[in-house]
Amino acid sequence: MILFNIPDIRLFWSEDDRFLSQFRTDNPFSVKFQPFSKYPLLRNDISFWCPPGYQPNDFYDIVRSVGGDLVEQVTLVDEFVHPKTQRLSHCYRIDYRHMEKTLTKSEVGQLHWKIANVAEDELRIEVRKN
């Protein structure tokens, strides 16, 4: 426990990948435990039409700047090119989680739409509503 800065011995019996993945390395003795939330995540998807010249890293930056520490992960889950218009669409899955409390759907919903609005303004994307 002391070697890895693990605060609770019960974590050694955990099957949580957020714990186990920290020790999957060439030198597990160099690992210092990084705490993770015990609260459930909320997952929301956002799909939008990409403008010409769109760069995914710009969207990731907006999500991180608007969502802050509440955003645990952002993943591109689908890419679609419309067969007639040749417009490119991306769908991202955003995982939200708080370190100290359970988030409500309302809290995450407000943050999710704020991310969408900022992305529309700054990146000129067109959010797909259906």
Walk me through this protein's architecture.
The protein is an alpha+beta fold and 130 residues long. Helices cover 27% and strands 23% of the residues. Strand 2 and strand 3 form a beta hairpin. Helix 2 packs across helix 3. It is elongated. The model has no long low-confidence stretch (mean pLDDT 86).
Strand order of the largest sheet: 2-3-1-4
Number of helices: 3
The shape is: elongated
Which secondary-structure class do the elements indicate? alpha+beta
Q: What is the count of β-strands?
A: 4
Helix content: 25-40%
Let me know the average pLDDT: 86
Order of helices and strands: HEHEEHE
Note poorly predicted spans. none
Note the gap between the termini.
50 Å
Specify the biggest β-sheet. Answer: 4 strands, antiparallel
Percent of residues in β-strands: 15-25%
Radius of gyration: 18 Å
Q: What attributes characterize this protein structure?
A:
elongated, four-stranded antiparallel beta sheet, alpha+beta, 4 strands, 23% strand, 130 residues
Give a short overview.
With 130 residues, the protein is an alpha+beta fold.
SSE blueprint and pairings:
Elements: H1 17-20, E1 42-49, H2 56-67, E2 71-81, E3 88-96, H3 105-123, E4 126-127
